[in-house]
Automatic annotation (TrEMBL):
The keyword DNA-binding does not apply. This is Cytoplasmic RNA-binding protein. It comes from Thecamonas trahens ATCC 50062. Residues 172-188 have a biased composition (Basic residues). It comes from the Eukaryota. Transmembrane segments: none annotated.
Amino acid sequence: MNLDGVEAEASKPTSESAAAPVDDAAAELEAMLASVQKLDEEAAMMAKLQAAEEVGSGAAASGEAASTTGGEEKGGLGRGGVDDEVDYEEMNARTVLVTNVDFSATDDDLTEHFSSCGAIRRITIAKDKFTGRPRGFAYVQFDDKDNVYNAILLNESLLKGRLIKVVPKQTGRGRRRRRRRRRRRRRSSYYAPY
């Protein structure tokens, strides 16, 4: 038996075995190019949508669009976006807190109740994040600061058979200070001198 000849024949590349890896690599390359092309098309589509949104938000910022009652801030980006133009202090100055809201009250009910105060930009009914049930209070944001004073006049009015309380929205600074005071009181009573 001549094994040297068999080894020599096995070590020679055949045209079939050499063509198989080339075909696999070419097919893989074609698949990659197709996916890159799809990504480029999606990026172009996203750029068009963003340009259209910027045009739409520019019109809303100038006051040409109608006000919304349950959406995002006009002129700002949606959830997760960052917009440097949003002035939160000014936005809070145009917002009132409505407490003792009936659990069955909807955005439309609050819109109808506060429509006499002025143009409403957004209504947010607070809901429990686990159950989705209303928590009994809501925020009403107006287009103008002067509308807040009109809304405060509706304090202790009836909404769906309940007396609601309407106050201007406050930032969380006061709450943090009260919390710190409570902690200090607790610590001081716990570590009483001997």
